[in-house]
Amino acid sequence: MPEQLDDVWFTRDLPVLRAIARLVDGSEHGGNPYLGQVVPASGLPKPEVTAAARALVAAGYVEALTNYAGEIVRFTGISAEARRLAGLWPTPQGEWDRLVEQLTARAEHAPTDVERARWRALAEAAVALGPDDGALLMSALIGGYVPRAR
């Protein structure tokens, strides 16, 4: 069986995606950063940034302009999924975690015993529901789907 290749998502591609997302989303570079601006923003050497950029374009995460030789020159956009992966947009799991944090904090800082008990009960119910069902709920909320009462 052939040897597996090393995973480069967390060490190369994701850091470059996050750098591109920050620069595309920011106004400093007009939202269309050059490859040369992504290199220092990512903290990786240029050959690794170039390889990651090609992989990200091929996967549909980023859009890029190339020169006649096919080399990436500038980034012009990122996909919705890239925004989620980079942390610019919420994910259902992340929002569920934030909700549970808020409920716990409100329970700890409630001014009265009655309010503290109510917030604690809600926080415990959320934890009991679990992250999988919680993420499904948050997915519906983030996506704008809220079932209507009949």
Structural features, described:
By secondary structure, this protein is mostly helical. 61% of the residues lie in helices and 8% in strands. The protein has a two-stranded antiparallel ribbon with strand order 1-2. Strand 1 and strand 2 (72-78) form a beta hairpin. The longest helix has 18 residues, at 92-109. The protein starts with 8 loop residues before the first helix and ends in an 8-residue tail after the last helix.
Strand line-up in the sheet with most strands: 1-2
Main β sheet profile: 2 strands, antiparallel
SS field, number of helical segments: 7
Rg over C-alpha atoms, rounded to the nearest angstrom? 21 Å
Query: How many runs of DSSP E, i.e. beta strands?
Result: 2
Overall body shape? elongated
SSE pattern = HHHEEHHHH
> What fraction of residues sit in β-strands?
5-15%
Distance between the termini: 58 Å
Secondary structure category: mainly alpha
On the 0-100 scale, what is the average pLDDT?
Answer: 92
Low-confidence stretches: none
> What proportion of the residues is helical, as a percent range?
55-70%
Note the topology.
Layout: H1 9-25, H2 35-42, H3 46-58, E1 62-66, E2 72-78, H4 80-86, H5 92-109, H6 113-129, H7 131-142
Antiparallel strand pairs: 1-2
Helix pairs in contact: 1-2, 1-3, 1-4, 5-6, 5-7
Please sum up the structure shown.
By secondary structure, the protein is mainly alpha-helical. It is 61% helix and 8% strand.
Provide tags for this entry.
two-stranded antiparallel sheet; single chain; 8% strand
